[in-house]
Each structure stands twice: as C-alpha cells, then as structure tokens.
Amino acid sequence: MLQRISQLMIVGVVAGLLVAALALPAVGGLGITARNVAAGFLEMPSQLETPPPPQRSTIYDRDGGVIAEIFDQNRELVEFDDISPMMRDAILAIEDSRFYDHGGLDVSGTLRAAVRTMGGNTEGASSITQQYVKNVQIEAATSQEELDHAREETIARKIRELRYAIALEQRMTKDEILEGYLNIAYFSDGAYGVESAAQHFFQVPASELKLDQAATIAGLVRYPYLYNPRFFPEQTEERRNVVLDRMVVTGAITEEEAEEAKKVELDLELDTPPNGCVPSDQPFFCDYVVQEIEQDERFGPNETERARWLRTAGLEIHTTLDPQTQEAGQAAVDKWVPRENESRKVAAQAVIEPGTGHILGMMQSRNYGPDESKLGETSINFTTDSDRGGSSGFQAGSTFKAITLAAALDEGLPFSTSFNSPSSTTVSGQTSCNGGRLESWSLSNAGDSNAGNHNMISGTKASSNTFFAQLQARVGLCDTIKMAERLGLQRADGTLFTENENTLANSSFTLGSEEVSPMRVANAYATFASGGMYCEPQAITKIEDRQAGTTIDIEPECERAISEDVADGTAYLLSQTFNGGTAGSLDGSAAAWFAGFTPQMASAVFVGDPRGPQQYPLRNVTIGSRHFPVVYGATIPGPIWQETMRGAHEGLETRRLASAPGSFGSTSEPRSSDEDDDGDEEASPASDDGGVPNVIGMSESAAVAQLEDAGYSVNVSGTTLRSSEPSGSVAAINPDPGRRLPKGATVIVFLSDGSGRESAGGTHPGNEEWHPVRPATLPTGENSGE
C-alpha cells in the first residue's frame, strides 16, 4: 500500500512538472504550478471502465453457415496467448520498450519529452497503457461531445489519461493491458485490432505472424494513415525497417535476423471481410434480420442504441434460415423470373415452418442494391411488410378464399353448404363491420372457373368467384375479415383490416383485393398446416452477446387461432385443387399468386410488376426467354412453388396431412349443372359434345389446335410433368377432359417429360412422386371486385 501511495505521489509530482514544463516554460512560478497540479492529480477520479472494444457481429443460418457480418469496425478479439510473441516484441520495441518496467508512466521518457518540449520540440510520451486508456475512452464515447472530450489536444486530457493509466496498472496485469491494447488499436486500412490486421494484410491469424509481418503491422500504429500499406507501400516498408532496428536495440532479435527480415518484399494479400447485407448471398433475409433487431424494443431503448449494439457488440445472431430451402427457392425464382428481365417483373416467395413461425426462406428475383433505376436491382423486400422491407404489398387474389373457407367451417357450416354459382351474379345484403349496409356487388367468374351448383368442395376445386362471394355473404363480411386477422393477416402498410375503413366495407375481400405480403399469406397457410396454431413469423432464434457475456433465447410466439377440425377441414378443401382444380390470376392478369403447404412448410409465391400490377399486367409478356400470352397462378408461381418444395423436402421424412374431419359431413360434390340442365346457354359447342376434348397423348401443336377449334383459349405451361406419355406430348390438362366450360375459357396444357411415371396429383402440377403427401394449395383466382 505504501509503495502504491509513493508511486502515485511521484507520478503526481512528475505530472505537475510536466504540466509546468509544457504549459509555463518561461514562467518563474513553475514550482507553485507543479505543486498544485500534483495535489489535484492525486484527487482525480481513477476508475476507468474497460469494456471490450467494438467488434464484428455475425448472422448465421440454422446450420451455422455465415449469412453476413455487420460492423462499424472490422475487429475480431483474440487472447494474449493467441498473439505471436514476435508481434508482442515488435509493438513493445516501437511503442513502449520499458512497458514491463514502469507503472503506467515512463518517467524517464516523460521527463525527456518535457525537456525537449521546453526547447521547442514537441514530443509525445504516452506509454502503451496511456494509449490504451485513450482508445478505451474514444470507443466508449456515445456522443460527439464525449468523443471530442476523449480526443482533445490538451494538457488536461493527458493528465486524465495518466491518472487512469496509473490506476489501471493497479488492477490489471501487464499482459492483460497489452492484450487490450493490441485488440483495440487501429492498424490502418480499416483493420482494427491485431487479429483483423493480420488477416487483412497477410491472410494469417495473429498467432502465425512472421517477423517481417509483425514489424510491418507494429509500424502502422503511430500514423495509420501515413503508413497505409495499400497507398504508401514505400513508407510502410521504411517504417517496418525502423521497427526491426528497434527490436535489435531492445534485444528481441539479432542484427542478422533484422537484416534478413528487411530483405523480404512487402507482399500484401489485402482482404477485407464483406460488411453488411449487400454482399450477402441472402441479402433480403439479412436485411430482414437487421430490421428485426433495430425495430424491436427488447434489444434497446431506441433505434440508435439498437443499431449501435448490432454493429459493435460482436453478436452471434442465429437465425431460422434453412440453406436447403433458400437455395431451392432462389434457384426456382431465378429460373422462372430472371433478375434482369426486361419486362421488370418480379417474383417473391416466403417459406414458413408450421408450428414455429420460423422463416425458412425468403427469395425474390432482384439483386440487392440502392439503385432502383438499375435493371434487376432493388433495396425493397417484396416478401414482407412495409416496416420490415419497404413494400406496400400486393392484392393476393384467390389465396384469400381459404380465409372464407376457414370462417365458414369455424361457424359450423358443413362441406355440403351449396349455392347456385352462375358465371356472374349479384350479391346483396352484406353489411360492413361498422354496421353500414353495403351496396350490391356484381361479379363474375373468370374463363377457367366452372359455373353451376357448387358446395365447398366443388366450389374450391373450381375456384368459383360467384360461389365464394355467396359463401362470404353467408358467413358475414366482418367475420371473414376477423378470421383473416386471427390467421395473422394484415395490410402490408401495417394497419389491421379492422382499423381500415375501406377494408371494413370491401365486398370483394374474399377475392383478395387487399394488399398483403407473401410472408403473411404463407404464415396464414402455415396455420392450417399446423392444426390451427398461429405463430408469429420468426427470423431469429438466439443472440449471443459476446461483450456482455449474455445470451438471448427467442422462443416461438404461438397461440391457437382456430380449432384443429377447422384447420384440417380447410386443408382438406384446399387439397381439392390438386384433383381437377383450377388456376388463375388477378382480374386483368394484374398479378399471379400460388400459395400452399405440406406438413413441414408453407409457401406463398407472388409474380407481378412492382411499378404497378394494374398498369403493367401479366399479358403478352416476355420474361427471360419465355413469352406468355397470359400468366396464371399455375404458369409461373406454381412451378416456382413446386420446384422449391421438391428441393426443400429432399431428405425429409414423409408426413401426411390430416384427413377430412367427420364433423363437417359428406365430402361428396353436388350434382353438376350438366346433369340438371343440358341446355346451358353459356357452354361452348365442344361442351355439348362432352366438354373439354381429351387431348392427352397428343403432340403440343395438335392438342392446341383441337382445343382452340373447340372454342377454348390455350396456355401451354412451362412446367413438364413426370408421365408415361412420350416426351413433349400432352401429359395432362387443367381442367380435366370432359369439363363443361364457357366459350373462351382457358385450358392449361402440361407436357410430359417422358420419365414414364405419372404424377400422383392428377392434372395439377405440384404433387408428383417426389413427395407422396398431397400438399394443400390454393392457386390464385380472379378478382372481379377491383
């Protein structure tokens, strides 16, 4: 204790002399000044917090692969024993050769500096401990005022640093101080800390630095901008040689070793780790994770503090992203809607795990970047809501019909609930959620929807607009809207449906005329797959804060939204779209969707034009090398969904969806209008002869010709099916042969790949033998209410 007090007093006197020498060299009152400063020095606060310096945060996928690194300073901390002894000797030789002999202040060096300063030559005299103190205060600054205070060129700052340095030497070992200094120091060209410097300049860890490399890095600290090896290699080499000479003087190396090291050319292998989401292979998911942290109050009191925490705390952020799903989905999206397609159309897809809400994949056909005018580049994440990605969402079309089904089953309506569903109808008597009576709503089916008497099974299979309009009226618009919110759906602008006056009076709600995000749609479908358990979409599972030494575990936030019977019943009805069902697009072919699920994952795919789907519809459009007269849900979104699911499910165990609950009665379809009325005036001539011609097995050209002769429009899908029919011939059509359709209705033709195996799902793509479970999906339909 006496020794410490004695040391402090000596240092206090020296500090007083130093101030007097530097500030009052020509004043006769030097002794009085020195005495006063020495007394004040002993009374100064001495405790300095030494938190870990800023370091890189890393975002990982669920398998531990690196998605991105995010940082303000490129720094990776290392322990003392993981720093090459040669590096330690080099930094001591050039910065503080008496480091292990003094107590925070090199008295002889300080006095020497004072004398030289009195002679007119300013000289620094900071020990490594003092330099460490200065860097700690700079890195700990949380405001510009604190930063300026830490950097000010004043005697007062020098005295503060000295007082902290002396105290620091009392509670930290020399090795601990040297370790802290080497981790916090700036070594030029964006490299903070010795580990990052070794990796940046020489592609080796700090533990493996050779003599010439260590001397090079040590020489950068004093003037990191002047000695930047990237721009000033000659000055850097000269500085390295100065360090080597100093190492000879201190006895760290021999003259022969120094001369050999000087002969080594400055062979740099500059490497800077990518910073942020732009260089990531999963940039939009990365950006979503960043937004999740910066906007969540549990991670800090305000967005500024949260952003600082993310970029400086050395976080290890573990996420839900499944690399297999992401890779399969991105490949499918890029294949069908190339990123730089001249039509400027975009495909966006979100994949959710039922029962957890984990986001398994997030894909879109754009490069991540700030220049929206550049073809194929955007910073907008079209898969999610505005507050997480900047997108205002898109009208979701017939994917919303699933909500009406769930609402109907939730109210106890049986599968047999039926309506006469003609090609067009008018629905009256609906009321808004705020009590007002709505005007009559006139709507019609699209060309590929079947008119007739439909119950829930056949109406879903036909994706009949007129059926669902009447079902919504039976259930009640307000109850349908509330069901959507129970399933986690809301407008992409962040407002709830029940908070939006226009939505509350939206007669065409069941036809998907609300702007929503693919993620919300996928997550709603995941609720059906999970047996009615709704889980908030989740991207982060755990955050390890290396600075604080704490771990934040993030559990799924789940609750029962609908009963298991309602979920399973809805799933059963949706699965009917794979048994002779239909596919379509928004009214006017503004956009196309495809949503569906298996027990393991749910996905929603959107294809459209972000400039405005109504102004730039999916008609007569060339996307990549393919030309499409019209893009339907099964034309592009369907194949994207199918290829994503095939790749994502590879290696997973087979799991089946639940059977239809008995509580909703018979699963039989009603008698068709064909059986009740042979004189359907809207049927095409072909319908009178048995409906859609059976062209399966024909060549593409022959099939198209026969269907067009029968009065139908034809769309040949780009997706081939596994079939026993010869390669290139027709494997299936949608709707099935024999279906009675209005004149001009569209028939989708699927060609065979000649593999010799028929798909298990009938005429609709998406249920081949790659997965024996019949995935429940509802392709987009028409939105005549726009």
From TrEMBL:
Regions crossing the membrane: none
Example of a GO cellular component annotation carried by this entry: outer membrane-bounded periplasmic space
Disordered: annotated span: 656-696, 717-739, 754-786
Keyword Disulfide bond: no
InterPro entries: Beta-lactam/transpept-like, Glyco_trans_51, Glycosyltr_51/Transpeptidase, Lysozyme-like_dom_sf, PASTA_dom, PBP_transglycosylase, PCN-bd_Tpept
Stored SMART domains: PASTA
SUPFAM superfamilies the UniProt entry points to: beta-lactamase/transpeptidase-like, Lysozyme-like
Keywords assigned: Carboxypeptidase, Cell shape, Cell wall biogenesis/degradation, Glycosyltransferase, Hydrolase, Multifunctional enzyme, Peptidoglycan synthesis, Protease, Transferase
PASTA domain sequence ranges: 686-753
PROSITE patterns xrefs: PASTA
Keyword Transferase included in the entry's annotation: yes
GO MF entry, a single one: serine-type D-Ala-D-Ala carboxypeptidase activity
PANTHER family: BINDING PROTEIN TRANSPEPTIDASE, PUTATIVE-RELATED, PEPTIDOGLYCAN GLYCOSYLTRANSFERASE
Family the UniProt entry places it in: In the N-terminal section; belongs to the glycosyltransferase 51 family. In the C-terminal section; belongs to the transpeptidase family.
Protein name per the record: Penicillin binding transpeptidase domain protein
Originating species: Nocardiopsis alba (strain ATCC BAA-2165 / BE74)
